[in-house]
């Protein structure tokens, strides 16, 4: 591996500026942010392709009846009928093995994806149609809610084609993912940036399990670091990844910078980081 950073592909800097601006908007555009994530993985996804994906979400929303009688349950059933039954959006265990399952433009094309990306489709289509919809970040399985999250509402599972969930169903999903119990806090609405961060976490985890895709882990980290609120430790993860990729000097520099950040609260940790940096530089000898 080369000790020097790879040249940045043309257009990437502009896309990342747009991503950072969109993440800091007063009302972040969830679909745009997810599509810009997709553009990192697929350089062929240009401005025209992003517009086409947004238009497809508009088209799907136009197929829904406006303000159906029956409240939150009617909205949930109509979305399940349109997106699940008619359009075939859904997921299976095999979808967890594909990076495409975390990319919104691919999910719109393939109509397959992870629970959170299918939920993004549900959220964006329902929102455009005027539905009272919100995301629910259950541990290990993202779903959507319709209605008042703190009052009358229903939950639906886009991964299962929009199947309506009882409280017992939601509790079983949480127990299966964590072994713990469902708490009211888990049912609180997830904001756009929380959803984007979770999408990027999924991509990082996918790539981390596949060392040959370290470049994917790197761009997912780079985007996560552009979010207004993110775990500080992502900087250490990025530095260590650079070292594993053979970019020893860049990785060592970032380890030392992060050591300066944590030194006041964790002197021992800062010392360990500086040792890592020295070891990375020694690999060049």
From TrEMBL:
The record ties this protein, via InterPro entries, to: SirB1_N
Pfam families according to UniProt = TPR_9, Transglut_core2
- What are the TM regions of this chain, as residue ranges? none
Give residue ranges for domain Protein SirB1 N-terminal: 72-201
Q: What family does this chain come from, according to its entry?
A: Belongs to the UPF0162 family.
**Name this polypeptide is given:** Protein SirB1 N-terminal domain-containing protein
Origin organism is Streptomyces lydicus
Taxonomic path: Bacteria, Bacillati, Actinomycetota, Actinomycetes, Kitasatosporales
